[in-house]
Amino acid sequence: MDFVPHDEKIVHEMLNVIGINDLDDLFKDIPQELHLDKLNLPSGLSEPDLFHELEKLANKNKLHLSSFLGAGCYYHYIPSLVDFIISRSEFYTSYTPYQAEASQGYLQAIYEYQTIISQLTQMDIANASMYDGSTALAEAAIMATNILRKNSIILLEGIHPEYIEVVKTYCWGQNINFKVISEDMLGNELNENTAAVLFQSPNFFGNIEDTTKIAKIVKDKIPECLLIQVMTDPTCLGILIPPGLTDIDIFVAEGQSFGINPSFGGPGLGIFTAKQKYLRKMPGRLVGKTKEINGDGIGFILTLQAREQHIRREKAISNICTNQALCSLSALVYLLSIGKTGLKEIALQNFQKAHYVKKKLSLIPGYKILNKKPTYNEFLVRCPNIDDFIEKCKENNILPPLRVSKYYPNMKDVALVCVTEMNKRSSIDKFIQIAQSTSEQQMEGN
What we know:
Layout: H1 8-18, H2 23-26, H3 47-58, E1 66-67, H4 80-86, H5 89-92, H6 104-121, E2 125-126, H7 133-148, E3 152-156, H8 161-174, E4 177-181, H9 186-189, E5 194-200, H10 211-221, E6 226-231, E7 250-254, E8 270-274, E9 286-291, E10 298-303, H11 325-362, E11 368-369, E12 378-382, H12 386-395, E13 398-399, E14 402-403, E15 414-418, H13 425-445
Parallel strand pairs: 1-13, 3-4, 3-5, 5-6, 6-7
Antiparallel strand pairs: 2-8, 7-8, 9-10, 11-12, 12-15, 14-15
Helix pairs in contact: 4-11, 6-11, 7-8, 12-13
């Protein structure tokens, strides 16, 4: 389709309809310093020169031999089948399946995704996915306030800081009160106006929280209060008790670990599940299976999508307009490829390798493990000199762990180390060797 620009007459007519004088008024809410007068674009190139320029740019990319960085985005094994399937044009060019009779293939894929996520988490229902883990958590918080008609939520410390910021933004727009507190304060902070308690496990610091303990505190004091759990790396479900077998009311997660490359930090996949009784309050969309009135033919349809672009408008449960269809397909193919035993093996390798690194680091002078609870594949370690440690990792072509002071300024010289099944013995030994040399250098300097 050709692009046909609007002439001045049509532009003027449209401006009159919405009641403004010129295009500048349309963008007056954007600060002037953010306006661009002219794009600083280079002149055009021939095709050979363009390829040469792209090669130069590509050579600037740094390819690390190994990664010890996690904090919400993880390097996991991805079966070749995943990229093969999602690279098929009928999937990666597919638009949102409003016209069911023309979208049966993709609707079935989404339906199967919902099914496998429900089975994995042991939760009653799963939707067709959301943007990412942070927005899924924020939508869960709003869902809880809609269910109970209360306007306060509590977030426990240990939720990913970026997730907390997204929840705060959503709460601000919905006039929802929130508090971020420690688990020790939970019993005192709960009250009759609390709609939900949100917590992450394994949390941002790597700790596996005692869900039963948290649930008892909440349900004993406010039985109707909803318990919402979030995960950033759900590969741990290969060995941990699924949320559906606990008192969790809504479970959300970031699904990037399920067959999606970290890339440059995205895209993500928002996994969203809940108990059956909250079905009609769930945001986003669900795909259902049906059959012919006169016959035995099976079909797939979009159902329960009370969203703003349909009939509900401003009364819509959610303003989520789409789902991460290609990413959810990646997760589906990934989980089908590795199966139950494969996911368990991946989870075990994450757990065992991370604990091996944790033990080795604890034996090096100057390094101290800070976690007091069990951990999965991430943990906190205080370093003798985190600047030297990170720099040496980079020099050895290793993507270093997260400098925690990025989010918590008072946690100086603390690193959040992540170890997955992708870390080979050689890279782990090199990582330990770097830590040892940093310790020795620090001791010599003192």
